[in-house]
Structure formats: structure tokens, C-alpha cells
Amino acid sequence: MALSASSFRCSSSSSSSSSSSSSSPTPPSKSSSASSSSGFPKEPLPIVAGVSALLLGAAGCYWYSQSDFSNSQLNQNNDSDPNSDHDSNVSGPNGNSSPHGVGVELDFPLEQVELQLRAAECSVHFAMPQGVVSGFHVNAFQANRSMEDARREVVLPADPYEGITSSALFGVYDGHGGARTANFLAEELFDYIAYAKSLFAVLLSHSASSEAEHTANENHESSATQVAPAADHGARTDAVVSDDDNDQDTSPQGIIPYCLKHAFLQADDIYLQRAAITHQYRSGFCGACAVVAYIQDRYAYVANAGDCRAVVGRYSEKDEGTHKVWTAIPVSKIHRADIKEERQRLRAEHPNEDDVDALRRVKGMLEPTRAFGDGIYKSHFWNDLVPDPSKRFQEPYTPPYITAQPDVQIHEISGNDRFMILASDGLWDFVSPTKAVRIVTRAMEAAQKDPDAPFNAATELIRYVMQKRGAALLGDYSSQSSSSDEKIAAVMQIPHGTRRLVMDDITATVIWLDRSNLDEATEMQRFHAHLNVPKPASQQEVETILQEARAQKQTVEKNGATGSSC
Q1: Where does residue 359 rank: exposed (0-12), middle (13-18), buried (19+ CB within 10 A)?
Q2: Residue 200, Cβ neighbours under 10 Å: how many?
Q3: pLDDT by residue (tens digit) across 79-123?
Q4: Among candidates 412, 393, 411, which has minimal Cα distance to 402?
Q5: Cβ distance 60 to 3 under 8 Å?
Q6: Confidence class of residue 156 from pLDDT cuts 50, 70 and 90?
Q7: Rounded to whole angstroms, what are the CA distances from 35 to 41, 173, 278, 495?
């Protein structure tokens, strides 16, 4: 019995919602029909519709649409220690407490503060938890002239009859220079992950049959076709077969990280190709950072390229359970030019370029050292397309400087892990991982005391940043004479675009985790208990049921009776 696909849409204050199709990725074709929010023609994808079926399975899936949230200019706030427990400075990007001076006058209706703060929030809780995921909260807030963050969530329920366990994908995409790259990732990156998984399964199956054939024939040397991780940027899916790599880890801990890495690289490769073929050159100049969490069974596989982050909130009990201590567990690595290791890598790869990390930015301009898009940092082709020759990179110029290759971390979800936070750097510029976990836990405690009050942990994270920035605008650091709504109103009254001088776009996703969902009983047992659907205990019982059905059918045909039975 398979679960039918269900669709859900979270409310959004953005201009439009992108397609949530699960079609498979292919190189772009020149024919086009409708346009997508990424700016590209939305061409049909010719690969068979079932190419994503290995990931999605016969169980169907719950789709939660991404909102066209995105992040524009890169925040200029340098933070050389990405895992610091101290909040970042409250000063603006130019180092001043406020671009408007201290003590701005409020001209924003306070009764609108909560409505606008919650306009894009979405809270989802499952009656039957999907694996370790029991629900999630999302929200976003716009600072740029147009929202340049994006996000997407997909939950895939279990199907015991197909041997499929539940899994979930969550993504936050932080654009810069425009929203097109982030919107593309929200629309299509999960499809590339599905495609990579399906291709890996096909190659693995071919490898197994090939190995068996060679083993049976003693006159031939055994050599099974295996999948090797793509070494170079832009490596294509159909070019990752290697006869030399016979040690590929075929466990989920080996397959999923490979698929995530390959999907990131292929998506970036095709994004830039499509921008060139369709002459959407502005799309090629845009870029985006990304963090994706793939949660299956008791593991979270977190792929990150750029300066988005993922943090797990874990608690430990002290004093015989009377006191809980919360710990922030970073599960992603930051890639920015103000990080010492990244600067050393850039200098080693481009030894003759003194400006490769000038101003702690790539070529003195770009802050993240890993990102999608950003064609001028990856090839001469895009640099030559810059309309003004004086603004092109001059020699020495030896691209690529950045890559979309993600860092993938595998986190085993413990019994004390309660949630995971994914967010764009608009949050992390002003909130440390420890502080973010503290904000969520305090929101949880408040919700327990007042169950009827609205509760969305992602909203509380954004609220904190806006209060902090509003305090800077009002010059209210210590007296706390201004109310929470007044501080937020001080930010909201600034028009989009100008607001970017105060803060960046923020997108936050809080994933609720509960390891006991797996520890107390197997997922398949819970599935059947929930649906009250008995499962045949053995193959012999299956054959017995089939024989009875055939006998009943023959009796009906013999008697000439017609009818239907359940």
C-alpha cells in the first residue's frame, strides 16, 4: 500500500511561489515555454519521469513549497571565527551604529509589527513523525529591494511494501547579486540530488551484475564498474564511471554524501550552461550559497557551500534531571575569504596573484569562497561578457577561484538532539550558534507555559536580530526604554533596499528532531501500527492469500457471477 502524494503550501509574503515539480535534471534545451522565477525558460525535461523514483519512492511525498526568498549583497561584517559563541557586532556594515544616526523617530504602526513579522512563517507538525523528523518551522524577512533568499522542504514518508524508510530534505539558499541563482536552487537542486541517487543505484546494480559475470568466468579478470567522486568542478553525471575505484562505500554513509556533492556540482554546471545558452547573462553573474540537510534514519547529512550554517541543539541533564544544559553542535563548515584556511587555499592555488584575497575577499570583491553561479570567478567566458572592459578582472587572472563543491558532514542524531537550525548568513551575522540555540529553547519553554500562544521558533530567531538592529537604530543599548515592538518597528519602517544597510535578508528553518521515534520501535512497525494495516508475516502467508484469491476468482467465473470485493 502506497501513500498518495500530498501537497502543502506555506504562506509567504514574497512575490510568487516557485514550482515544486520533481522532474529530473537535464542540460538545457533551446525550446522554452514558461519562465521560472530563476529567470530561465522552463523547458521540458526529457529524461523519464521515474528517474527520481529511487529517492521519492512509491510512497509519494509531502512537498512544502519554497518561498522566493533570497539574499542580495554579501554582508560585509567580517567574522574570522565562524564558531564563536559571541554575538557579532551590532554595528552596521560600515562600522557605524546606524546609517541614519542614533535616535530615529518611529513612524510605523506598532499593531502591524507582529503581522509583518509572521507574514512568511510556516509551522508543520506531523501526527505520525517521519523518521526522526517530527515537524519544522520556517520564516523569512526581507531587507533587499527584492528578496534574494529561498528555501525548500520535502518530506518523504515511509512505504514498508517498497522497503522505503522515511527521509527529508531541507534547503536554505542565500543569493547575492540577485535572486535568480537562489530561486534556481530552490526549484531544482533537490531534483539533481534525486537524479544522482538514481544514477548511483543503476551503476551500482550494473557493477554487481558485472562483478558476478566476471567471477563466474575464470578466464576474465574481475573488474566491477564503480562510481567515483567527481574531482573537478563541473564534472557531469555521465562522466563519473571509473573502473579503477573498487572501494566505493555503498552504505548510506558513503552514497548520500557522494550524491550531495555531485548534485551540487552538476546543478552549478548546468545553471551556468543554461544561462549562457539562453543568453541570460545576468543570471550567470548572480550567485548563491546553500546549505542542505538530508535526514534519513538516524543520520543527518549536511552539505554546505558558502556562508549559510547548520547547527544542532542538544541538551544534557544535570542535577538528576532538574536542570537542562543546552549545547550548540555546528554541523556545517563556513567557506569565506576571511577564514584563514580558505585564504591559504586561495594563495596556494593562485600563487602569482597578490589580490586573490585582497580585503579578505576573493579578488578583493566576493566574500564566500564556495558558491553557485558567480561565473566571472569561474571562467574567462563570463569575465569577457562584462559589458565594461574596465570592470573585468585583469591579468593575472587564473580562474576558477571558487567552486560549488560542498563540505558534507555526517551527524548521527542522538537521543538528546532536539532540533536543527538551518539559516542564511543574515541570521548568523548577528547571532552565534550558542545564542541561536538559546533563543529556540527559550521559545520552546514559553510555548510549554502558554500552549495557546502562537509558536514558531524561526520567527523568534528573526525577532531577535530585528530587536538587536532596532536597538542600534534607536540608540537603546542599555536603558531598554524601547519596547520589543518599537525596536522592530524601527527596522520595518526603513524601505526595502535601504534596509540592507541595517541587516541582510534572513531565512531560517528549525527542524524538530526526536530520536525516540526510531529507538522505541522500528519505523515499519510504527507505520503499520498507525495505519492498522496488517503485513504478511512471511512469503508462505503471501502465497496462501494469493491462492485463496485465485480460488475465489475461479468460483465467481464458474458460477457466472459478477461483482466486486475489497
Answers
A1: middle
A2: 22
A3: 445 555 555 544 443 333 444 444 567 778 888 999 999 999 999
A4: 393
A5: yes
A6: confident
A7: 4, 20, 12, 28
Is the Cβ–Cβ distance between 117 and 124 less than 8 Å? no
Nearest 5°: the CA angle 296, 297, 300 is 50
Round the CA-based radius of gyration of the chain to a whole number and report it: 26
The mean pLDDT value for 313-329 works out to 79
Residue 320: what pLDDT?
Answer: 56
> How far, in Å, are 409, 414, 417, 437, 515 from residue 314 at the CA level?
17, 8, 4, 9, 12
Residue with cell 495557546: 452
Q: Sign of torsion, CA 19 22 28 34?
A: negative
| Cβ partners under 8 Å of residue 538, min gap 6 | none
Supply the DSSP string of 130-160, one letter for each residue.
Answer: ETTEEEEEEEEE--SSS-BEEEEEEEE--BG
Number of other CB atoms surrounding residue 510 within 10 Å: 27
Question: Rounded distance, CA 149 to CA 528, Å?
Answer: 39
**Nearest of 84, 119, 139 to residue 460 by alpha carbon:** 139
pLDDT band, very low/low/confident/very high, at 344 (cuts 50, 70, 90): very high
Nearest to 27 by CA among 261, 264, 258, 267: 267
Where does 223-264 show beta strands of DSSP type E? 226-227, 241-242
SS (H, E, C) 451-485: CCCCCCHHHHHHHHHHHHHHHHHHCCCCCCCCCHH
Q: Which residues, 6 or more positions from 506, have their beta carbon under 8 angstroms from its beta carbon?
A: 140, 141, 143, 149, 423, 424, 426, 427, 461, 462, 465
Dist. CA 303–CA 109, nearest whole Å: 41
**Within 13 Å, how many C-alpha atoms sit on residue 41's CB side?**
16
Cβ(287)–Cβ(372) below 8 Å:
yes
Question: Using CA atoms, how far apart are residues 221 and 205, in angstroms rounded to an integer?
Answer: 19
Taking the C-alpha atoms of residue 424 and residue 306, their distance in angstroms, rounded to an integer, is: 10
Kindly report the pTM of this predicted structure.
Answer: 0.74
